[in-house]
Amino acid sequence: MIVKFKETAVFYTDTGKGSCVVLLHGFLENSTMWNAVVEEVSKRNRVVCIDLLGHGNTGCIGYIHSMEEMAMTVKAVLKELKIRKATFVGHSMGGYVALAFAEKYPKSIKGICLMNSTSQADSEERNKLRLRAKEMAKKNYETLVKMSIANLFAENMRLVLSKEIEKVRVEALKIPVRGYIAATEGMRLRENKEIVLQAIDKRLMIAGKQDPILNYKIVEDEAKRTNTPLIELPNGHMSHIEAKNELLKVLTEFVKS
Ligand code: MLT
């Protein structure tokens, strides 16, 4: 289904009945990453998945897609569906968007689960990497995407999961260069949202022990500092693929709680 935001079509799915759960995908992903979660969670809940700006079937609106603008597209979908309050699960960039949403619309938040995500802004190093990636995207997009996708998985799993990695790559390569650059800029410019996270009553962090993007120790410190319950999984950045069954269990519990 589609709703218009700033003259651009925003794609979403709406499955099941009950208290609403919103699932937000990460960078270079789209709402299909949640298929298994939707199947499980929609048995007891209404589940809304949204293709964020420049991803999946949703168009681009500018040269920078800030996390706040992405949050506004989420609000547009919820408004269309007359949903006042929801529990959010955000994978990586989806978590940044969920926090931007919580800051803008605190009354619409029931809870947030940050899955392989963080409330922190980029480190200086990550910021520089993003600037480099932006330049490379203009010159050699396919190589960049192929490389970046493999790097999301735990190193020791890359061979075993080669088929799954290929599927993620195929989806990622559907994203236009413009969408890649706009989301990269949006993530690079995002600010620290630790206070926003702390203000949410029902909150959870899920982290991969071998996440090549988000260092486990740093996420663990963040969880301690913000007093956020933390679930440790044995995998990399892609919990929904690398630790599918454990993740389903954790998310089902979180939504029920
Ligand atoms: C993602 O998976 O959404 C990205 O890796 C997040 C990021 O680059 O910070």
Describe, in plain words, how this protein is organized in 3D:
The protein is an alpha/beta fold and 257 residues long. The protein has a single domain, classed as Alpha/Beta hydrolase fold, catalytic domain (Rossmann fold, 3-Layer(aba) Sandwich), CATH 3.40.50. The protein is built from eleven helices and eight strands. An eight-stranded mixed sheet has the order 1-2-4-3-5-6-7-8, with helices on both faces. Helix 9 links the parallel strand 7 and strand 8. The mean pLDDT is 97.
Notable traits:
Pimeloyl-ACP methyl ester carboxylesterase, 45% helix, AB_hydrolase_sf, AB_hydrolase_1, AB_hydrolase_fold, 257 residues, 8 strands, Rossmann fold, 11 helices, binds D-malate
CATH architecture classification = 3-Layer(aba) Sandwich
The fraction of residues assigned to DSSP E strands is: 15-25%
CATH fold-level label: Rossmann fold
The SSE order reads EEEHEHEHEHHHHHEHEHH
Mean pLDDT rating = 97
Give the tally of structural domains.
1
Radius of gyration in whole Å, from Cα?
17 Å
Under the CATH scheme, which class? Alpha Beta
Which parts are unreliable, with pLDDT below 50 for 5 consecutive residues or more?
none
Kindly report the spatial arrangement of strands forming the biggest sheet. 1-2-4-3-5-6-7-8
Q: Cα distance, first to last residue?
A: 29 Å
Number of strands: 8
> Portion of residues in helices?
40-55%
Name the shape in a single word: globular
**Please, how many helices?**
11
Give the full name of the CATH homologous superfamily: Alpha/Beta hydrolase fold, catalytic domain
Bound small molecules, by name, code or SMILES, are: D-malate
* Biggest sheet layout: 8 strands, mixed
Structural classification: alpha/beta
